[in-house]
Design brief:
The chain is of the alpha/beta class and 593 residues long. The chain has helices at 16-35, 45-68, 86-94, 121-124, 186-197, 214-226, 242-255, 283-294, 296-353, 362-372, 375-383, 388-396, 404-434, 437-443, 455-478, 484-490, 492-503, 521-533, 535-565, 576-591, and strands at 74-80, 112-115, 133-136, 160-165, 173-177, 201-207, 229-237, 262-267.
């Protein structure tokens, strides 16, 4: 006996090179599908996530295993509605009860795979349906009624596949008795769908009074999309209604693109004492299965046909997922733009407040005036600005209030502005997200409408770092100059305080420095600095200090906006372009057969 691991390569119609290339492509598709992330609450997202799970299952359960072993036995899944008689049909095909049939629903919880003992090696490992564990079933020779045959219904064992080797099953084909497609159990319905998706062909069982039900027809249309071979068994047909019912069903099959489906009629007959149908009732179906099993080339053709149809269907599914991924990406970009706009606007307002003189009022102005003198000093200075160089040195050799008070006042005022605008940005971003279903989902119950913990300390540290950098600019500019003695007599802190005052009086759009702000505040700082460094140097120092402040404000608010943006992390997902490329490659693969 040849085991699956030692099985020969695909048949002539599927040469090694094509199979190897196909497997390589399919494994890449599988990897990228498993990495696909659709986290946003968009219309259709739930359905797309389900499509991803179903596509992955079908790749694992059927497409990859079949490409790797095209000559493996066909898997014929016997599926259908509740009470259609699937298990009774399987028992009749084998010749005695091996799977449980009865009136209590659901009777089939564990799927039972019947195969010829010669084919056992193909199913004992995880080649197909790898998510289901294997249980080796035993055929009992005793005359056991069908309502006690097989494993007792056990919801806990639904993830197991019962393997039963039986010589009545022809070599080259296996029968899988699946749960009801419309079972009262959610798990049963999901498992039935998974098993049907792993089938090479369907034996679909329905009844004379239920053949038009919606659920079975939805699955039959899925089969038509996959181009899978379907045999429809119309069970329990009253002889008087056989012609009418069968004609109606054939017309429905033809209309839905399933005109090539085989139709087998099982008339309504009494079951024997073991709950078995008479052998002649299923002889046409049994003969058809045996003929399929005996024709190796025919089996390979069925496998290729179903495989290519399934790959074509997968191509359409992956294309739809690429579109869903694109929509997610676009929605994420809108949400990210909302956040960035809110924080960029806040940065703009902060920068405006630092250059329009707004900070040179209140406490800052009071501390600066304490530092340079009284209001009388300003009047004298304005009357005779040309004598500033002679008088300002003498002024600073007195005992003014410490310059650090000016720095502290500036730090306090600047911190308040940054904190207020950061809070406004957070509230704006939070409101924008909450007005969008996707944004609301990302926020959940979290409140991001205020600043983050520790933000005030980071702001204060950044302002102090800026002030320290500004002092270093003063030291660097003064080194080696003939005015060194003069700037040393003024003190680094004093000149630094003056430079901060000048920075906060710079109006955007002007080439020079604005003067006359806040009652003459800026002109004092400007003239003081010009007396020490010269006009060009003062302009350059002020511009450098302002650019540094701007960069630090930008960085602070960019860090704050990450609280929102990190929820839009799509790093684990594949791009829509990659999925779209896979869809095209799968279509070419299906067409090349």
């Amino acid at each position: 006996m040849t085991s699956p691991s030692e099985s020969p390569p695909p048949g002539p119609a599927a040469p090694n090179s094509r199979a190897a290339a196909a497997v390589e492509l399919l494994e890449a598709v599988r990897g990228d599908l498993s990495a696909a992330v659709l986290p946003l609450a968009l219309p259709g997202a739930d359905s797309a996530r389900l499509d991803i799970r179903n596509a992955l299952s079908q790749l694992d359960d059927y497409i990859l295993p079949r490409f790797r072993s095209l000559d493996a036995p066909l898997l014929a899944v016997v599926g259908g509605s509740t009470g259609a008689g699937k298990s009774t049909l399987v028992n009749a095909l084998v010749g005695h009860p091996v799977t449980r049939a009865g009136a209590i629903r659901p009777t089939t919880r564990q799927p039972i795979l019947l195969h010829n003992p010669v084919d056992s090696g193909w199913f004992e490992d995880q080649r197909v349906l790898p998510s289901l564990s294997r249980i080796r079933g035993v055929v009992v020779d005793a005359q056991v009624p069908a309502n006690r045959a097989g494993a007792a219904p056990d919801a806990a064992a639904i993830s197991s596949l019962v393997l039963v080797g039986h010589p009545a099953v022809p070599e080259g084909i296996a029968l899988l008795d699946a749960p009801d497609v419309d079972s009262v159990s959610d798990d049963n319905r999901k498992l039935a769908g998974q098993l049907l998706a792993a089938a090479d062909l369907w034996v679909f069982v329905t009844t004379a009074n239920r053949y038009a039900d919606a659920v079975p027809w939805k699955l039959l249309l899925n089969a038509a999309a996959r181009d899978i071979m379907v045999a429809v068994v119309l069970d329990r047909v009253p002889p008087a209604a056989e012609a009418e019912v069968s004609a109606d069903l054939r017309a429905m099959l033809q209309q839905e693109g399933l005109g090539a489906a085989k139709l087998f009629i099982v008339r309504e007959v009494a079951l024997d004492r073991l709950g078995m149908l008479p052998a002649e009732a299923v002889e046409p179906l049994g003969r058809w299965l045996r003929e399929l099993a005996a024709d190796a080339a025919g089996r390979a053709e069925i496998a290729r046909r179903t495989l290519n149809g399934t790959v074509r269907s997968l191509s359409g599914r992956v294309a739809a997922l690429a579109q869903a991924s694109q929509e997610q990406q676009q929605a994420a970009e809108v949400l990210a733009k909302d956040v960035r706009t809110a924080y960029q606007d806040a940065v703009a307002r902060i920068l405006e407040a630092t250059r329009d003189g707004a900070l040179l009022r209140g406490e800052v102005l009071a501390r600066w005036q304490d530092f340079v003198g009284t209001g009388e000093f300003f009047r004298v200075l304005e009357q005779n600005i040309g004598r500033m160089r002679d008088r300002v040195g003498a002024f600073f050799r007195g005992e003014p209030a410490p310059a650090v008070r000016v720095e502290t006042a500036i730090e306090t005022g600047l911190q308040a502005v940054i904190m207020d605008e950061a809070a406004n940005a957070a509230e704006d971003a939070d409101q924008r997200w909450r007005s969008d279903p996707a944004g609301r989902q990302l926020l959940g119950t979290d409140d991001l409408s205020g600043t983050s913990a520790g933000f005030p300390d980071r702001v204060a540290a950044e302002i102090r770092a800026w002030q320290g950098g500004l002092m270093e600019l003063i030291r660097t500019e003064g080194q080696g100059k003939r005015t060194q003695a003069r700037w040393l007599s003024f003190g680094v802190n004093g000149l630094g305080a003056a430079l901060m005052i000048v920075v906060f009086s710079m109006t955007a759009g002007l080439s020079g420095l604005e003067v006359g702000v806040a009652g003459g505040t800026a002109i004092v700082g400007q003239r003081l600095l010009e007396a020490v460094f010269g006009e060009d140097a003062v302009r350059r120092l002020a511009q450098t200090a302002r650019e540094d402040l701007n960069a630090r404000c930008q960085n602070l608010l960019q860090e704050e906006q990450q609280r929102f943006l990190e929820r839009l992390d799509f790093a684990a997902g594949e791009s829509p372009d990659v999925l779209a490329g896979h869809a095209r490659a799968l279509q070419r693969l299906a067409e090349s057969a």
